[in-house]
Every structure is written in C-alpha cells, then in structure tokens.
Amino acid sequence: MPPTDGKRTALVTGANSGLGKAIATALAAEGTRVGLVVRDRERGATALAEIRAATGNDDLHLFIADLSDQSAIRAVAESVQQQFAQLHLLINNAGTAFAERRLSPQGIESALATNHLGPFLLTNLLVDLLKASAPARIVNVGTRINTAMDFDDLNWERRPYGMMKGYGQSKLGNLHFTFELARRLQGNGVTVNCVFPGVFKSNLGGTDGAQGAFLKLFARLFGWAIPSPEQAARRVLYLADAPELADVSGQYFGNRKLIPAPAQALDPEANRRLWQISEALTAPSQTAG
Ligand SMILES: NC(=O)c1ccc[n+]([C@@H]2O[C@H](COP(=O)([O-])OP(=O)(O)OC[C@H]3O[C@@H](n4cnc5c(N)ncnc54)[C@H](OP(=O)(O)O)[C@@H]3O)[C@@H](O)[C@H]2O)c1
C-alpha cells in the first residue's frame, strides 16, 4: 500500500461512459484522485485520456473489472487496496439492463449480479479501507424503476423475465442495500446514501437501445429536452460533496432533496433478509458491521 498523502481519493464504477464518466470528470476537475472502474480496458483508457485532457488531472487510475463476475470484483478490490492508501468516496454507479434472462459466471441472473451484488460485494471488500479513511462517503446510484423483490425467486427461475422487471428488481436492491448498510455503519464515520439521478441521455440498455428509443419518443411527444449525464451528475456530486450531508446516512435523494423509497425497501426485515441472501450469494470473507 502506498503511503497516505491525505489527498481526497474516489472510486467511480462504470466511469467510461454516461453518468459515471461525467461524475469522474467533475471529481477530477476538483483535483480529486480518481479510480475509474471499467470492464473494457480500451474504453476505459480512452475515457481516462479524455478526462485527463479535459481537467489536467494526472492522478487518474484505471481498474478493470466486469462487475457481474465476483472473481473480477475480488481482484479489483485487491488492486484498489494495493494502489490507494485511502478511499474517501465510493460511487457505485455502473448499471445495466438485459432484454433476456442471462446468467453471470456464478450462475446469477446478470442484472441482479451486476446492479445489486456487484456493488454489495465491492463495497464490503472496500469497507475497511473506507472506515480507515473516515470521514468517507458511499453513494449508490438508484432509479425510480423498482420492481418488488421476490425473495424466493431472486434468480428468475420460476417467473417470466422481462428487461424492466429484471432491471427494476436489481435496482430496488440498491435501496435495500443502502438502508441496511447505513444501519451497520453507524458510528464508523462512513455514510451511505442512494440517489435517483433523474432520467438522462445515456447508453443504458446497450445495443437493445431501449432507453434511447423510449427517451426519443418521449422527447418528441412532449417537446422535452433530454437532460445530459453532466446535469444528472450534479445530483450525485451533491451527495458526495455537500458539507451539510457530512452526517447524513441511509437516505434516498432526488435532486438535492429527500424522496420517498418504495415501501418494501423501508422494511428493516426485508433489508436484513436481502443482506443475508446477498452474503450467501457472494460469500465475502467479511461484511460491514
Ligand atoms: N440513464 C438514465 O436515465 C438513468 C435513470 C436512472 C438511473 N440510472 C442509473 O445510472 C447509472 C449509470 O447508467 P447510465 O445511464 O450512465 O448508463 P451507461 O451510459 O450505459 O453507463 C453504464 C456504465 O456501467 C458500466 N457497466 C455496465 N455493466 C457493467 C459490468 N458488468 N461491469 C462493469 N461495468 C459495467 C458500463 O460499461 P460499458 O460502457 O462497458 O457498457 C458503463 O460504463 C446506472 O446505475 C443506472 O441504473 C440511469
């Protein structure tokens, strides 16, 4: 591990495009040391070079991991701990959606694996570094598209799969995770909050193009200017930077204001239950709290 230099250090997942790249760029412009977690080395290197050119910040670091693959997450957490003496900010931003049910290398439905278990495992592997760097903040990027968790069939073995249903269930996991993690981190100097960044233009849904097509139709019908990732990033950066949020944890924010979470995610029993299932599905050597 390198010696501590006291410099603010952040890790942003999905930092090569859309919201993650906008967040990483804004943090780099503030002079923060930024780790970019990406799954494709080439796309990551291109993004890093662009962020460096735009901000003049040379303290940018690339970490490669497919966040649907638990062995890749373990390896990247190890690299982060070797390269960063401290970590003050973790932004779990990477997210994706699938038109059809697919399985991760560990046999888990891929949206659940990437959008919920990915941040769950990465955060738990880095939580000691965050605690040792306190005050530190974790920001989870959620969405308003939430489908109730079926705890008896999280892996979609008995229910028909659909892109929005799979995405919505996995992203509700971000809220369950935020609330339970906040409870476990009380008194450790590490806060965790979830943010809905609004609807904005991005590559979400990938080659299916579902998000893009939907947004274009919406914009045409209502003459609406689709917000940019840079606009959406301001909501996320508020949670990362605002001094008045130094002690605020376990909350769900929209545009700088608290917003209501779906009832299921407000049930502490449900939050504990998903935590236990997630622990069993990832079997990290230790989890927070
Ligand atoms: N766009 C919206 O309107 C909207 C609304 C609400 C919430 N959100 C949330 O905002 C976040 C960012 O999404 P975005 O809209 O900016 O989409 P995006 O442009 O597609 O960015 C998603 C990022 O996540 C990465 N990613 C996807 N699967 C991954 C995996 N298995 N391993 C590692 N990285 C992976 C992508 O990498 P690649 O480039 O390699 O695919 C990309 O860097 C997501 O959590 C999403 O749920 C978006």
TrEMBL record:
Keyword Nuclease part of the UniProt annotation:
no
InterPro entries noted in UniProt: NAD(P)-bd_dom_sf, SDR_fam
Pfam family example for this protein? adh_short
> Which Gene Ontology terms cover its molecular function?
oxidoreductase activity
Q: Which UniProt keywords apply?
A: Oxidoreductase
Please indicate which superkingdom the organism of origin belongs to.
Answer: Bacteria
**What is the designated name of this protein?**
SDR family oxidoreductase
Q: Species name for this entry?
A: Rhodopseudomonas palustris
What taxonomic classification does the UniProt entry list for its organism? Bacteria, Pseudomonadati, Pseudomonadota, Alphaproteobacteria, Hyphomicrobiales
